[in-house]
Prior knowledge:
Elements: H1 2-33, E1 39-40, E2 46-47, H2 58-64, E3 73-75, E4 91-93, E5 97-104, E6 107-114, E7 121-125, E8 128-130, E9 136-143, E10 146-149, E11 152-155, E12 160-163, E13 175-176, H3 179-182, E14 186-188, E15 207-208, H4 212-216, H5 220-228, H6 246-257, E16 263-264, E17 281-282, H7 299-303, H8 307-310, H9 331-342, H10 353-358, H11 363-367, E18 370-372, H12 374-381, E19 390-392, H13 400-405
Antiparallel strand pairs: 1-2, 3-8, 4-5, 5-6, 6-7, 8-9, 9-10, 9-11, 10-13, 11-12, 14-15, 16-17, 18-19
One heme C binds at residues 50, 53, 57, 60-61, 64, 69, 210, 212, 214-216, 241-242, 318, 323-324.
Amino acid sequence: MKKKIFVILSLLVIGFVSIKLYKYISRSTEQYSDLQVIAYHYNGEGYVGSETCMECHRDIYETHLKTAHFNTSSFTNLDNIHGSFKEGENTVSLMDADIKMVEIDGKPFQHAQIKYGDRQAYDWSMDITIGSGLKGQSYLSNQPDGLYQLQASYFVPSDKWINSPNYTDRINPLRPVNDQCLKCHVTFAKSSSTSPNSNKYDISKIVLGVDCEKCHGPAEKHVVFQRKNKGIHNDTTLIGLSSLSRQQRLDLCASCHSGLRSNQIQNPFKFLPGDTLSKFSKNYNSLRPSTTLDVHGNQFGLLTSSKCFTESDQMDCMTCHDPHRNQRGQKAYFNSKCIGCHQQNTTTCSISTTEMAQMGNDCIQCHMPVVPSKNMQVQLTKLDNTTPVGVRTHNIAIYPEEVAKE
Ligand code: HEC
Ligand code: HEC
Ligand code: HEC
Ligand code: HEC
Ligand code: HEC
Ligand code: HEC
Ligand code: HEC
């Protein structure tokens, strides 16, 4: 009798334990199978996307969603296009064609109507939006034979649809989009051909936006490790950015903020934080004096030619920028960075306090003025939309004309 009870009890205990164990195992596998790898880097490491980071880095995740970086590319839908679809506001008129933004079955398209001859028409889907919409947006179309940039773009300063920069005033063959174009606006893309100029991609495997893993490297291993070992320190699954040299930290930002670097030596998507940028790409005109540098972004070239940089040994981009926040317009924050250095061991401003006050004590207004982009202006004068894009120069210097302006 006692034996029977003992056996039954044991069976019950074993059953209970196995159910618990089963539940525990299935839950943890469930948790791990949540982890979706969007794409694999050339080194085999997986990109998992910033949503995965929310679980443990909620603060950074939430501020990051508001940055121009995160929003610089996304799958296009009617909501994230900043330009108008209203009749009369939705057209770019060229010499030989009209391009209209239209909605077909709830999806955005560019509809090109040729004005002459057999009056052919084309419909191109708008699939990927490039640009956070601060200055403008451009659209990519995923066609059967590859990825292309569409001819109509949206330009913020004039709030109008425009002919995309570098397109002529006629209907142009669509411009293929390859790694060279994508490298600064997405985190990772791998074309399906080994040819360096290929424009063929599985767009569901493009890691969009300048996301966490652009600056921190693919993080699949980190997430798996941290989920297993809740909160363990001395985690070496990621490249520690704070332990990198000044040049390595600069190179990370310079990979997108030092001009087009069209002299490509290696695939730009092989570049990882900690790598030496000059082994990947160079600017053809790197010997040109830096004052003539222009955007599409060369904050690196401009900053490194200013005295604040050359005469201090710590300054890098993070001296003034928190890469996890949208800090646009935070004058007081940026000024505090200038004063931080300029009240201690370096010289302070020699201008009169009256003049200083007239400019609201805003160091940046006088020493990092907004200048019109030469590139973008030339492109736009042909199109009646002459409003140039203003860019903040990173050549911190004395600009006497800025004082005279007031
Ligand atoms: C399950 C929790 C968890 C998830 C998910 C997670 N992390 Fe972490 N992460 C941590 C912990 C804990 C640390 C601190 C480790 C240490 O101090 O060594 C950390 C540290 C970091 C660091 C600092 C590393 C260093 O050496 O300075 C970075 C960068 C980072 N995580 C990025 C990410 C990114 C990007 C993602 C999403 C793709 C992510 N983490 C997802 C828990 C997590
Ligand atoms: C534009 C590049 C960039 C992006 C995008 C970025 N980071 Fe960072 N992150 C950095 C840099 C640079 C540092 C080191 C800061 C320093 O040493 O001054 C850093 C530091 C960190 C740290 C450790 C220090 C801290 O502040 O806690 C964590 C954790 C982290 N990042 C997580 C993330 C997560 C999660 C995301 C996305 C939601 C993200 N980062 C996106 C560049 C970036
Ligand atoms: C993969 C390319 C890439 C990398 C790497 C990168 N950036 Fe950017 N950054 C961009 C692009 C593209 C934009 C413009 C986004 C837009 O408006 O669509 C931008 C915009 C910015 C802006 C302007 C934000 C605003 O609100 O106007 C700052 C500041 C900036 N980056 C700083 C940095 C710093 C600092 C680093 C290094 C830690 C860095 N970036 C690394 C591509 C990059
Ligand atoms: C070398 C890096 C780089 C390459 C390559 C590049 N861009 Fe950019 N792009 C930037 C940076 C940086 C900005 C932000 C401008 C600035 O410096 O303030 C930007 C801004 C933009 C903007 C305006 C975004 C906004 O709202 O602020 C659009 C649109 C854009 N780029 C489209 C493209 C397209 C289309 C291509 C490919 C043909 C391309 N870019 C190639 C770096 C690059
Ligand atoms: C990391 C410290 C540091 C920071 C931050 C810094 N500077 Fe400087 N700056 C220096 C040093 C060092 C010099 C050269 C020696 C001197 O003039 O004291 C310098 C020089 C200058 C000069 C003289 C330039 C010339 O060509 O003669 C101006 C103007 C200036 N800084 C303005 C600024 C402004 C404005 C800011 C904020 C946007 C700023 N600095 C941020 C360290 C810094
Ligand atoms: C001495 C401070 C300082 C340093 C160092 C610095 N920046 Fe900036 N940056 C600024 C200020 C100030 C602005 C203007 C912010 C605004 O408009 O609200 C700015 C704006 C920008 C913008 C937006 C430009 C525009 O006109 O839209 C980009 C991109 C940028 N910085 C990138 C970088 C990169 C990359 C580095 C490192 C190579 C860097 N910055 C280093 C102070 C700095
Ligand atoms: C009204 C425009 C204006 C404002 C605002 C302004 N500066 Fe200046 N700054 C100048 C001019 C002009 C000079 C050159 C004066 C001269 O050489 O007589 C100068 C000179 C400097 C110098 C070099 C001094 C030297 O003798 O070499 C530094 C450093 C400097 N400013 C830093 C700053 C800082 C930091 C701020 C913000 C607290 C600031 N400036 C605000 C216009 C301005």
